[in-house]
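Quick start: what a row looks like.
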Amino acid sequence: MNSRARRIAISVAASMMTLSLAACGVLGASESSDEASPTKGNDITVGLLLPEKENTRYEHFDYPFFKAKVAELTREQGDVKYANAEGKASKQAAQMQQMIDDKVDVIVLDAVDSKSISTSVQTADDAGIPVIAYDRLAEGPVDAYISFDNELVGEVQGRSLIEALGEGADSSDKIVMMNGSSTDPNAKQFKAGALAELNGKVTIAQSFDTKDWKAQNAEANMIEAIEKVGLKNIAGVYSANDSMAGGIIKALEDAGVTDLPPITGQDAELTAVQRIVTGEQYMSVYKSYPQEAESAAEMAVARIQGRDIQFDALAREKVDSPTHKGIPAQLVPVVALTQDNIEQTVVADGFYKVSDICTAKYAEECAEIGLK
């Protein structure tokens, strides 16, 4: 079994185990606190620290789903203290210190800078406050980690780009790689997964680590790539997320491109889904933020309430950070989003209604691909 198949098998097995436990009542939110012998009851405070607002997912999906799940699990008695660092590591460190000072029961942390935040993680640990790394693996003594299978995300992006180039693609085709921020450990994993699919099949003509994942920085990088590679020589663009894909497309269109090369993305942002409908963007990676956020809430509540069986069932895998080994983890699976499966993914899961996607501006293109 290859590594990708193994990871998928693990994810499926973990999901099946979670479902089995739920059916047996182990994971049921309706179970009483007495039955679980918790160290704390339902009157708990969970700190949620998210990294930025450039990507719309955090405000629109992660926070609302997380908050709702904590409320459900604690019979509306639990409280979520929320803070967004807006891309600033120093601001996030101050926010985390405030939560430590406020003596929250557990912290769920999506780090702006996974390395620099390690001091804050250690401070929380010293104060007896568990920290669960969310979406990005923070350094320091975290109790658990939940994210998507990030190398698989990169593999899906890379493989989709090769498929978009068609049967005539070969190693002479030049690709621009627009990777994420160098301070984000996920970006390194996306890149590694993508390179596993791209190396030997195409030429990586230019590669960038995009500061802060910002669209305007990706646009500037793409302008540089166009100057160095030549507009007509760019066969495709690997973009690590949708926001950057928007900046890349702007740079190409401003340079006079009318027939855009295939461009990847990630996060299934509404504007990206609409670009997929029109063909400006070839694909995105759809990740079930409700599943990630709700599982993180379950892990946080289980950890602070002393529900060890539930916690272990939710974190059956192990990952290593630069500072700690064998961290309990849950890796959530992902799906390649293209024109062919918009209805079966983001629409079916309630992310967007067809009417959200197919506004008057996109009505004709939606009709052409049968989205109505």
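That is the whole record. The longest helix spans residues 3-24. The CA atoms of residues 276 and 288 lie 18 Å apart.
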